[in-house]
């Protein structure tokens, strides 16, 4: 059996470590490289609390290392400042980026789309790899057909860099596909303190909470006549994302187009 060769960027981070621990247990996937700004030169097994693996952490990603390691897929869990460069480096090296890092803006996604088309090397972007969160987004989209008044509260650990979360933005995007344009709330409402109503995505308000102790949580609140409906998802650990990341790697290794969202790979 030919194994899929996987390179992990952000290997020393919270998600990167979890991905490596999971990868090491898969028969059909082979960890061939790992990069990070931390633990340089250290065997990645020791970084994640496992026995020696024989792959050392290298510094920020470049073309040569991807060619040298003959990677098929680059898994990126870095940060919003590094992810575009890493994805482009991968595509130009003929390696499919599987991107969990959030914070890419529209123009950056378009840049990836254009490069994918030019190089005929695929890319997979997933703002959320948790199956439960995918269902939350699906149910929210369905609910908005009947309950168009909606606010989103996303709650994360206090080390998160981007706000609103990629998941909250994708939830709003899904709702906007089915909801007619409308004014929500009082037409004359105003903010006494800037930001009080949260981020406004075409009339949908997203409120971002950052607190120690949290991992990743989201509530989608719908209000109707004399009733309210709340759809909530909680990620209690980063293991939550691992089945989705493994699906993403397996389904992406021979991809030649840009795919956004794990829902596209679920049966
Ligand atoms: N799609 C999904 O399901 C999920 C997505 N995420 C997203 O994944 C990303 C990572 O999250 P998390 O693991 O919590 O973050 P961490 O900060 O714990 O880890 C990121 C790691 O990447 C390193 N890094 C930064 N730049 C580079 C680079 N150019 N090359 C290699 N490594 C680099 C960081 O180093 P340094 O600290 O020195 O910058 C850090 O060690 C975030 O964008 C988060 O929103 C998180 C959970 C689930
Ligand atoms: O930073 C995180 O932790 C997470 N980021 C993703 C997002 O921005 O939606 C996914 C999940 O919420 C965890």
TrEMBL record:
Domain Dihydrodipicolinate reductase C-terminal positions: 132-266
Residues bound to NAD(+): 10-15, 100-102, 126-129
Pathways per UniProt: Amino-acid biosynthesis; L-lysine biosynthesis via DAP pathway; (S)-tetrahydrodipicolinate from L-aspartate: step 4/4
Active site: 156 (proton donor/acceptor), 160 (proton donor)
Domain Dihydrodipicolinate reductase N-terminal intervals: 4-129
Catalytic reaction equation(s): (S)-2,3,4,5-tetrahydrodipicolinate + NAD(+) + H2O = (2S,4S)-4-hydroxy-2,3,4,5-tetrahydrodipicolinate + NADH + H(+); (S)-2,3,4,5-tetrahydrodipicolinate + NADP(+) + H2O = (2S,4S)-4-hydroxy-2,3,4,5-tetrahydrodipicolinate + NADPH + H(+)
GO BP terms, alphabetized: diaminopimelate biosynthetic process; lysine biosynthetic process via diaminopimelate
Localization per Swiss-Prot or TrEMBL: Cytoplasm
Enzyme Commission number(s) from the entry: 1.17.1.8
GO terms of molecular function: 4-hydroxy-tetrahydrodipicolinate reductase; NAD binding; NADP binding; oxidoreductase activity, acting on CH or CH2 groups, NAD or NADP as acceptor
One Gene Ontology CC term in the entry: cytosol
Matches recorded under NCBIfam families: dapB (TIGR00036)
HAMAP family, alphabetized: DapB (MF_00102)
Known role: Catalyzes the conversion of 4-hydroxy-tetrahydrodipicolinate (HTPA) to tetrahydrodipicolinate.
Subunit structure: Homotetramer.
Similarity field: Belongs to the DapB family.
PANTHER family: 4-HYDROXY-TETRAHYDRODIPICOLINATE REDUCTASE 1, CHLOROPLASTIC-RELATED, DIHYDRODIPICOLINATE REDUCTASE
Name of the protein: 4-hydroxy-tetrahydrodipicolinate reductase
Underlying gene: dapB
């Amino acid at each position: 059996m030919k194994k899929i060769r996987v390179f992990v960027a952000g290997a020393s981070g919270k998600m990167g470590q979890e991905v490596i621990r999971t990868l090491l247990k898969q028969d059909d996937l082979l960890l061939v490289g790992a990069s990070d700004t931390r633990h340089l030169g250290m065997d990645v097994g020791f970084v994640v609390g496992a026995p020696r693996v024989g792959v050392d952490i290298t510094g920020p990603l470049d073309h040569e290392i991807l060619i040298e390691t003959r990677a098929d897929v680059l898994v990126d869990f870095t940060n919003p400042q590094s992810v575009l460069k890493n994805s482009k480096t991968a595509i130009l090296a003929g390696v499919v980026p599987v991107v969990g890092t959030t914070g890419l803006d529209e123009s950056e996604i378009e840049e990836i789309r254009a490069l994918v088309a030019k190089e005929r090397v695929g890319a997979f972007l997933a703002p959320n790899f948790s199956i439960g969160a995918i269902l939350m987004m699906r149910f929210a989209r369905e609910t908005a057909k009947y309950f168009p008044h909606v606010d989103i509260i996303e709650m994360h650990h206090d080390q998160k860099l981007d706000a609103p979360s990629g998941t909250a933005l994708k939830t709003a995007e899904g709702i906007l596909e089915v909801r007619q344009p409308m004014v929500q709330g009082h037409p004359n409402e105003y903010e006494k303190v800037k930001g009080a109503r949260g981020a406004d995505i075409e009339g949908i308000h997203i409120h971002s909470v950052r607190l120690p102790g949290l991992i990743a949580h989201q509530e989608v609140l719908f209000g109707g006549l004399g009733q309210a409906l709340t759809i909530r998802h909680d990620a209690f650990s980063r293991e939550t994302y691992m089945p989705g990341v493994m699906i993403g790697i397996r389904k992406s290794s021979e991809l030649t187009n840009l795919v956004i969202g794990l829902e596209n790979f679920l049966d």
